[in-house]
Specification:
This protein is of the alpha/beta class. Helix content is about 40%, strand content about 20%.
């Protein structure tokens, strides 16, 4: 169905199905007709690509993805939207809609069953409240996906795509860069949605890759990253000492062996710096 960004069309469809917006689910439907085609264009999709979409809403983005991909599997938590999606997307035979929670569904099995022989990408307009949990789950499970193209709150987009070694970087910046190459694509104003949120959004793409240089223990690596940023105003020495309950002199010894100054702060470090620290931490009894 076309005109899914038309306010009149949206109101008519939702009214007929007795649908009202849920604040708890972060529901904001796109009414800017240029956004979804641009997202689909930037998602690296061809005719042998399968797409996982999260939170299709009434199917505005889904409609564009179906035009350019081999198959779309849309995961929607709100069961009230099932009959709406049947109406708006019923003409397509390369679509499967699953009423489920993306944070609980078996994604590895879904990819295996639904996308055999295809390249797989994720493309979604993510509700703000689940942005980080969803992105980190997609990355940490090391799924067979090539990229993740998502619309998120602009503040989150800037943090996820910040350059490592700068003040804007954070623990989640390091984590995202560990698994992927993040790219800031374009801004989306709050007026592009109904109802309009209080903040602007942005679209980013994470090009997933298999890291060649890996730490001895990934769990320790991410503990070090978390500990380093948990008190980001403090020096790395103080933050790690506090987080791991270690004597500061022992932490300084590790930093010295990692060729880092004891006054350095977490925001100044590279992935390689964190790997060196975590590998050294593995050699001591915590």
């Amino acid at each position: 169905m076309d005109n899914l960004t038309n306010i009149g069309t949206i109101k008519d469809i939702l009214s007929r199905h007795g649908f009202t917006f849920s604040k708890s689910l972060g529901q904001n439907f796109l009414i800017n007709p240029s956004v979804c085609p641009k997202m689909a264009q930037n998602a690296n999709i061809d005719d042998n690509t399968g797409v996982i979409e999260i939170g299709p809403g009434i199917g505005v983005l889904t409609n564009e993805l179906l035009k350019v991909s081999k198959k779309v599997v849309a995961i929607e938590l709100d069961k009230r939207l099932m009959p709406v999606l049947d109406e708006t997307l019923g003409e397509y035979d390369n679509l499967k809609i699953i009423n489920a929670d993306v944070l609980k569904i078996d994604l590895k099995n879904l990819i295996k069953e639904e996308f055999e022989g295809m390249n797989v990408v994720v493309c979604a307009n993510l509700p703000y409240y689940i942005t980080s949990p969803v992105i980190m789950r997609l990355l940490e499970e090391k799924l067979s996906i090539a990229s993740i193209t998502v619309m998120v709150q602009k503040e989150a987009a800037l943090r996820l795509c910040a350059d490592l070694g700068t003040r804007d970087s954070s623990a989640v910046t390091v984590a995202v860069n560990y698994y992927s190459n993040p790219i800031f694509l374009f801004n989306v104003s709050s007026g592009s949605f109904m109802p309009a949120p209080k903040v602007d959004s942005a679209v980013i793409r994470l090009d997933v890759f298999d890291r060649k240089q890996k730490p001895k223990d990934e769990k320790m690596f991410f503990k070090v990253v978390k500990g380093a940023f948990i008190q980001r105003r403090k020096t790395l020495s103080n933050s790690l000492s506090s987080y791991f309950k270690m004597d500061k002199s022992a932490v300084n010894d590790i930093l010295d062996k990692a060729s880092l100054d004891k006054t350095v702060r977490a925001e100044s470090l590279s992935i390689e710096d964190f790997i060196r620290i975590s590998d050294l931490m593995c050699s001591i009894d915590l």
